[in-house]
Structure formats: structure tokens, C-alpha cells
Amino acid sequence: MEREISPEAPPTRTRLLPRGPNEERKPGDPGGPGAEAEAAEMGTYKCCIFFTRRFAPPDATTPEDVRTLFSRFSGGTPYMGVDELRRYLAATGELDGDGGMDAAERIVDRFLQGRSRTPRFGRPALTVDDFHNFLFSEDLNPPIRQSKVHHDMNAPLSHYFIYTGHNSYLTGNQLSSDCSDAPIIKALQIGVRVIELDMWPNSSKDDIDILHGRTLTAPVSLLKCLTSIKEYAFVASPYPVIITLEDHLTSDLQAKVAKMVLEVFGDILYYPESKHLQEFPSPEALKGRVILSTKPPKEYLEAKGGTMKDRDIEPKFSKGENEESAWGIEVPDIQDELQDANKVIGSKLSKTFLPFFSYIIFMSRFTNHHQDDMSYPERGVDEDDEQIVRKNAPLEYKHLITIKAGKPKGSLVDALNSDPEKVRRLSLSEQELAKVAACHGPKIVSFTQRNLLRIYPKGTRFNSSNYNPFLGWVHGAQMVAFNMQGYGRALWLMNGFYKANGGCGYVKKPDFLMQTCPDGKVFDPTADLPVKKTLKCTWAMVGSRILSRHISIHIPLQIFMQRWA
Q1: With 0-12 CB in 10 A as exposed, 13-18 as middle and 19+ as buried, what is 262?
Q2: Boundaries of each PI-PLC Y-box domain copy (predicted)?
Q3: Residue 440 known to be catalytic
Q4: Phi and psi of 183, rounded to 5°?
């Protein structure tokens, strides 16, 4: 027997014998009253190729402790009335004042209206299943409802994890998909606060295109992207939007960008009066503002048969990274990543290229350079180190940059030294983070207490897959950049993480990541710390009617907990 499970709809009993021509159709029967509504909650599977059968997953039984609680407040009766529910809410501290009776009546009415079959008895009351559903409702469970902003938003930006996108303009893969403002709009609508734009001269060299450089992606105009950002910047959150610009422009085009940005954003564009910031402003102070982040203006190099910097490319895919696994692989453990990084520190990249990548390299006329893994130069698309700082760069363009992405010389470890006179942003690839975190974790934590650290996906994630965000978060990295147009467990973790604090896109870092001991030591993510508290959790499977409102009933349950919890 061949079975094919369809997730589109939930198995009722299937009638095996034909119905007579005069037989009355009953509720729940195919074509009967309410059949369409019930079918919407049904699943189907194919039987013997030709036949389709429906099924409905049964609701889980009510846990015994819930039944005991219900019996206690209902006085041992099978129903809990408005007065009994009010007493329960008052006893648990959910109600204050004289409005308890009205609130209890509203709760009872809501559950009776949502019930498919309402029992006929004298007074409105809840059954034990209704009470069970109420305990798992959004009224009593802040994690599954839209919470309000409750973190202190008056600390500097470096004190927050910030919802960050990578190559925000791409609609699909990193090599050949279209560029559009649609992914930018979608990202802003879910609360993303950092939008990345790669700026390149257009074909006639008189305007600016947004595209993934040296690939086959189709461009979109900078003006269109900026206009969409202004329109949708604050639909999901009032807190600042940061635009990270990857600058590949000539000085005249940089001046055009400055004029365009000022015209589009006007008064909502924030830029400092001083040349360097000694401390970043707070999200509260920047409410409703847009700020720019990029490196100081560089000279644009045209590569006519010469060398242009290749992206930080691995010569081969990581183990198990193919089209299928990239979208749905398990999120790796932090310790495993650190151990893997330890094995490759000091080694050099192989010079064997993928045939497909060789074709892209040939078409794009750029060469690949390989240096020591711990060397800071050759950073990737985010760090075009071959460009030379221009002395005659437009003053307007320089002045508009609030978060400067500095590039100190020397090793990667030296790049993590903090300057007491100014703050800056540093960008690392996911591999570079793993390598430096394996030996210099506290140094990263110390750097992120005042400065911003951005982590971006490695160059071989052609299909816009993502990586483990926890490695960056546990080291204090504020901008863990993700491909928002991707899919999979890592992106689910990212989206779930930023549901916190009202979904505003800013989550305050835990205090221990911001603390420095009197002896100068900071938190070490790799240290073995004593257990301070052991949590005991009791899990109860809720009914599919509750579960389906928040996650698919066909997805296996997985629990993720922060190491510092």
C-alpha cells in the first residue's frame, strides 16, 4: 500500500460503504453540513493509488495536574462557571480590582464561541478541556503573544543584539537571483533593523545599482531601495534602522549617493557632528531615525584584466552541505564549531576550485587570493582592502557615516583591540569568528562591550543558507547577519530570538557580557563554570487546536536553550 501524507489539510473515520440515495448526510460526512470547515482542519493520504482518505490527529489528553486544578476551583463539578474562573484568576494574581467578573465573562464567552459543539446547560461555563486551552492561551503566556518593549533602551547600541540581514536585496540564491526591494520590505515588516546594500556603478557609470557584485544577479536601483526603506522602516518597530553600505563607487557617484540619501530621508537621517564617536547613541535616542554604516570612502578600482578581490571562498563545501541539507540541517553545537576551528587554525586553504565557481570567476574576471587563516587582510566582500583611502572623497558622504567600519592593520587578533577614543564596527565571516573564538573568546567579548561586531555568512553559501547564530551571540556580537530570504532551523532560531522585547529588533545583551571584573577579566564563553541552578521542566502536549495556531503540527518538537540561562 502506498501512502502519501499531505500537510495541506488534519484522519476522521472514513466511510467504507456507499451511502443510499435517500440517506441523510450528517455533520462531518463528505458534503454534509460543515464539511468544508471540517475539511480545512483535516489531513489526507492516498490509499491504493486511487483512493484518498482523510484523518484527524486526536487531541492529547488533559494532564492530571490540570484536571486537579480544575476540580479544585470548580468544586468537583464537570464545569467551571464565571464566578469560579474569577476566583481562580484572583488566586493566581491575574486580576486586580472590581473588573474581575467582567474579565472572566469575556474569557468564558470567547471560549464558548470558539467551541465547535457547545453543550446545552443553564449557565455559560468551561469544561476541563476549555480550561486546559485557556492555560495555554496567549492571555497567560507572554512568549506566544506579541509582548511589549520591556528592556532598557537607553544604553549604547553596543549593548544590544540587533536584528540583521545579509545581502538584503536578494530574492534567492547568491549567484543568479534577481535583486529587488521586495525582500527589503519583507525584512522590515518582520522587524529587521539592519539592511545591507551593495553599491556598484551601473553600466553607463552615471548611476548606482544595488547588486551582488561579480555575479549574475540582476540589479535594482539604489533610489528604489532607499525609498522603500523610508516607507517601511518603522512599520514593525520605532527603533533605528541601520543601513550598511558596501561601497564600490567612484567619488562622483559617492557624492550622488550623499545627495540621494539626504533627499530621500531628510530629517530622519541621523549623522553625528563630531568626526568620531566615543560612544554609540542609544536606541531610544535614535527612535524613528535612519543611520548609515560603512567604511570610510575608498577608491573604486576598475579591473580590466587586473586583480579585483575575490570573496572569502572555501574551495569545497563543508561536510553535508548540499542543496537539501543547507535548508534543513540541524543547527550545530557551539563546542563542535570551536573544536573544528581549532583543527584548521594555521592551515592554508586548498587551491582546488569547484568547476562551477571557476566558471563564475572566469566570467567575472577576478582572481582568488589565499592567505593565512588568521590574517586580517583578505576579509571578503565586506572588506575590500585593495581599495585605497581617497583624500579627495566627498565631504558630504564622509559626514553622513555614523557607524564607521574601521580596518586596523595587522592580524585578526589585533583587529579586536578597542580604541578608547572612538568606537567602530568590525566585520568577520562565520569561519573567522569560529577560529578566533577558539583561542581568544574573552577578547571578542571585551571588544563588543563598546564596539559593534558584525558576522556574515561564508562565501560558499550560494543558496542563501545560514549558520549557527549562538556562537556570535554568546561572544557579544551585535549584528549576526542572516540571509532572510533563506529557510531552515537556523533562520527559525533567529526569527524566534527577536520575538523578544516586543519584536522591536533590539534585544539587550545579558549583564555578564557587559561586565568587567576588577582584575580586567571578562566572560569567557569556553570556560567550564559551576552549575548555579538546575531547572526542572514539565512538558505537556497541548491539543492540535492550540498548537496549530503557532507552529505546524507536522514539525517535530525541538528545544533550544541558551548556555547562559
Answers
A1: middle
A2: 427-513
A3: no
A4: -65, -30
DSSP character for 317? P
Q: Say what the pTM is.
A: 0.69
**Non-local CB neighbours of 19 within 8 Å, separated by 6+ positions:** 25, 29
pLDDT digits (tens, 9 = 90+) for 198-239: 999 999 999 999 999 999 999 999 999 999 999 999 999 999
Pairing of strands 452-456, 425-429: parallel
Domain 157-297+395-513 bears CATH identifier 3.20.20.190? yes
Q: What is the CATH code of the structural domain delimited by 64-136?
A: 1.10.238
Residues 6+ apart with CB under 8 A from 382: 246, 405, 427, 454, 456
User: H or E element: which one contains 55?
Assistant: strand 51-55
For residue 535, the model assigns a pLDDT of: 77
d(CA 104, CA 89): 8
Q: Where are the domains of the chain?
A: 64-136, 157-297+395-513
How far apart, in Å, are the Cα atoms of 81 and each of 70, 101, 116, 359, 546?
Answer: 11, 11, 19, 72, 22
**Cα(152)–Cα(160) distance, rounded to whole angstroms?**
10
C-alpha cell at 240: 533605528
Compute the average pLDDT of residues 481-504: 92
Give the active site residue among 132, 151, 159, 212: 212
User: Cα-flanking dihedrals φ and ψ of residue 71, to 5°?
Assistant: -65, -35
Phi, psi of 146 (to 5 degrees): -70, 105
Please identify which of the residues 132, 150, 159, 166 carries the catalytic annotation: 166
Contact 454, 427 (CB under 8 A): yes
